[in-house]
Amino acid sequence: MSLSLLDVLTLAFFVSVWFGYTQFARIRARSTYSLSYILRQLRIDWMSTLTRKEHQIADAALLGNVERVVTFFASSTILVLAGVLTLLASAEIVVQVLQSLPFTADTSPDKVRFKLAGLALIFVFAFFKFTWAIRQFGFVSVLMGAAPQYRSTDFSDEQRTTFARQAAKVFDQAGHEYNNGLRAYYFALAYLCWFLHPGLFFLSTVMVISVLYRREYRSRVLRALLATKDLEPGRIKLEESQNSETQ
Predict the structure, then answer these.
(1) Largest CA distance in the chain
(2) CA torsion 126→132→137→143, rounded to 10°?
(3) What mean pLDDT do residues 193-205 have?
(4) Does the model's pTM come out above 0.70?
């Protein structure tokens, strides 16, 4: 099997853009309002409120709902992986189907198997992210159970605030892992276009990046979430950035 130069360049572009965007989003979130930034602040508020509430039944139900969603994606990923591995044994049939489609580049069973193996790796990556997110959401449930009680006098306000911030950090990390798993699904959709043509693969990768960027930094839901804090999309103010880093 030998990949064309265009295939190699497009695959390299795909991998570099995926992991490059992950690093870019992590760094930019420190200086620009994003979904990651505002969700972290809201999680801190949630955990702070938790330590000052007498009953936590509603909080447990909300966390359980989030865990069920992540578990659904983890289970779905296993089913997708099973389908991809099944196709590996039927590469010749896949080639026939692809060749019957218009504008499809020349391919072979070996190339299809290679591409399917790459697709399987993407979903393996997503599965690990989802399962790690599930475990971390479990850690959050433990922290919620160990939260300072509303009527307890053994904890000062400073101790309650510290607990809330640390619990929110664990909650935030779980959310990031869940987000990374979802991001793998987005890029898997772009990867599917490689089966048709490397040029289409390139365009779909660019489209996925633009969609992810817009939703993270330019979406209406971001504006609505920021509005709960009287904020607007843009650069983070210096004092807010310092407060975020101390948290």
Answers:
(1) 73
(2) -160
(3) 93
(4) yes
Tens of pLDDT along 153-192? 677 778 888 888 999 999 999 999 999 999 999 999 999 9
Tally the C-alpha atoms within 13 A of residue 158's C-alpha that lie toward its C-beta: 0
For the chain, the first-to-last Cα distance in angstroms comes to 52
Token output for 97: 């189907």
CA distances (Å), origin 28, targets 71, 78, 102, 205, 215: 29, 33, 41, 20, 14
Element (H, E) at 105: none
For residues 82 and 88, the answer to whether their CB atoms sit within 8 Å is no
Cα–Cα nearest to 135, from 181, 182, 171, 179: 171
Q: Measure the CA dihedral 87/88/93/99, to 10°.
A: 100
List phi, psi (to 5°) of 32: -130, 140
| pLDDT over threshold 80, residue 66 | yes
**HSE of 27 in the Cβ direction (CA atoms, 13 Å)?**
6
Spatial CA neighbour of 200 closest among 120, 98, 122:
98
Question: Could you give the CA distance from residue 185 to residue 77 in angstroms, rounded to a whole number?
Answer: 9
Over the chain, what is the mean pLDDT?
A: 89
32: β partners: 235
Rounded distance, CA 219 to CA 2, Å? 42
Q: The dihedral of CA 128, 131, 135, 137: what is its sign?
A: positive
